[in-house]
Amino acid sequence: MDLEGSDPEAMFQSMRKLAALPPATVVYPGHHYGKMEHSTIGEECRSNPALRADTPERWHAWLRE
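Above: the chain sequence. Below: its structure as tokens.
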């Protein structure tokens, strides 16, 4: 979201769509930096700050961190 032309509001909406998926939905990272090759929406909603930001205000606060 820090690239020219990026749209933080559109990313927020995309994160909300992902967060609304069933918790058991398996997801695969776009970048693999750890031991896990996949996760679930439920786990990501618990551990990923981008998915925990459930309001525009919390989203913008997370972006400023």
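The chain has four helices and two strands.
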